Amino acid sequence: xxxxxxxxxxxxxxxxxxxxxxxxxxxxxxxxxxxxxxxxxxxxxxxxxxxxxxxxxxxxxxxxxxxxxxxxxxxxxxxxxxxxxxxxxxxxxxxxxxxxxxxxxxxxxxxxxxxxxxxxxxxxxxxxxxxxxxxxxxxxxxxxxxxxxxxxxxxxxxxxxxxxxxxxxxxxxxxxxxxxxxxxxxxxxxxxxxxxxxxxxxxxxxxxxxxxxxxxxxxxxxxxxxxxxxxxxxxxxxxxxxxxxxxxxxxxxxxxxxxxxxxxxxxxxxxxxxxxxxxxxxxxxxxxxxxxxxxxxxxxxxxxxxxxxxxxxxxxxxxxxxxxxxxxxxx
Length: 331
Prior knowledge:
The chain is mainly alpha-helical.
């Protein structure tokens, strides 16, 4: 019994379970359940429209991050539904993928909510993946990794095709969700720490917790396929994966310098770039590959933002720890 290429699997029979990690990720996702409308945006609207609180550079940074994430979430959801779900036949893994697909829909709804609440031009925000070069390069890079897998005739039979599928999983789980999202997360949470656009910052905190679970599931899925089909994890393929992550780091650092060239109060563009290096090494370690960048985490408060799943007490506008969050590993 393997997680892919198993025609004997009955997708309607979820018990008994073989991959208990998939069930744990599903339960962790449920524990982090949220919707964007639960988060007040009144102060954000006041700050956005006042013209006094935010600098022009900060306003541009916010728009760029909304623009990148609004289309990146759609790219991820389409890949999940059209490719990953089709080829992962194990029922408990599929249960998690359905949960993730729901969360991607919530994230997409979050950016609709932000655009509507702030009165932004949707054409400007949703076309940034075409009009902003450093955003376009990131999206194009990930899309290019998945062209063959999204072919309706693609199968995961044979070593070469399993490697293509792994490349797809690494592209979306490790590179898109595990690297490309994190400079943007750090920028938006840095603004929140300055009491700027706190509502959007809280939305990004919840998204980041979801993405951390997505990443954990994706790495477990990748590592399970590696263990069940060890012939695919050749030295040549490991080198290719490391080079893909190198390229991803370059693109994300370029985006960090473009989106935040002057830094934020007390935070420089160089620190955002170092954070990308730190995150990339964490991703490499999860795949069983050696570190390549060897930077310390310049933003330890980012780990604090994701160390525990939090349940928001919206009536008291404060955050309280959720009871099972300590079982999760973030970053």
